[in-house]
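Quick one from the shared queue. A colleague (R.T.) flagged Type II toxin-antitoxin system RelE/ParE family toxin as missing a structural entry in our internal table.

Convert sequence to structure tokens.
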Amino acid sequence: MEQYSVIFSPRAEQQLGSLYAYIAEHGGEERAELYVSGIIAFCQGLSTFPERGTKRDDLRPDLRIIGYAKRATIAFSVKTDQVIIHGVFYGGQDYDSVMQD
């Protein structure tokens, strides 16, 4: 079985940091750590069978969108042997306009 490497874009890393800060402020650091770690683990899981989610070629070629825990949306693409995480959008944030840029 082929393994893909998972790469987080600078935008996705910044979004995860902001999400951690928001949850830590409103729900505590332990809850923030669990939630953000869960998102990262979920993204790492795309290393096997990355062709999941909904294709959104209308926004960007090869873009895929997948949900996490009913509150976060992960935007990613699969290139050769890599999964590139383009963004992590929480609580209904508008990913359409961001992914078109």
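The radius of gyration is 13 Å.
The longest strand covers residues 82-90.
Added to the table.
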